[in-house]
Amino acid sequence: MSKYVHGYSDVEANRLKEQANSLADLIHHDSVWPAGSLILEAGCGVGAQTQTVAPQNPNCQFISIDISEESINKASKLIESEGIKNVEFQTADIFDLPYQDNYFDHIFLCFVLEHLPNPGQTLDKLKKKLKPNGTITLIEGDHGSTYFHPNSKAAQKAIQCQVELQKMNGGDANVGRKLYPMLENAGFKDIIVSPRQVYVDDSNPKLVEGFTRNTFIAMIKGVSKAAVNKNLIDQPSMKQGILDLYKTSEGGGTFCYTFFKGIGTK
Ligand SMILES: C[S@@+](CC[C@H](N)C(=O)[O-])C[C@H]1O[C@@H](n2cnc3c(N)ncnc32)[C@H](O)[C@@H]1O
Question: What is the pTM of this model?
């Protein structure tokens, strides 16, 4: 748990909510499963995605799990406060799930595989828990897809620090581009991967605030101390990188990032 690069602070919990809210349409407009499905949401965190997908599928039952009990408590409070009734929360490890094989109709993971040292093995484990013909949805980012105006070497270097830190923790911040081969290697069929690009400019101030500033730049700021402590970058360069990232969210700036959504059938 201590290896989780973003940590479990309230600041990070808010960042996850900003991320989920600003991306809800882009990544979840098609997160709709057959009525009656029993769905495992693995790595639900503070419930930021749960609060979109559960009400969107009122006739499905969700079991949302996370390895962090603290996050599960926050998620549970959030979902209760929204009056959402079709979610049961449990603290559990993806690698040691307390459910029998062939149990779920669907399994859903959002921004989780990127933090795991063995995503292939994770998919093998999860596949066992799916019923025959059950389906899986994976949503991941890919930091290599980030480009912006005005361009800045310092900003690119700051982003690369996040990629390196995540690698040091056993994760892969560029996992989005690998979803198809990962699903294929795990033996899923009918695989479809769709890139979901976020493009942000001044015409959409809500996205400038919600995505560029409060999701992406907040993420880089969140790892800046660790990056300096691990000698990946010096403090002035990190500061410059973050300042330059902010310029992409000020008048005339633009910001692009691509998420990937993969689905497959057991
Ligand atoms: C970036 S957060 C994403 C949370 C949520 N899916 C979202 O999109 O807001 C990744 C989550 O995966 C959880 N996680 C990491 N390893 C896990 C494991 N082995 N079993 C269950 N959850 C895990 C972390 O505790 C964290 O809450």
Answer: 0.95
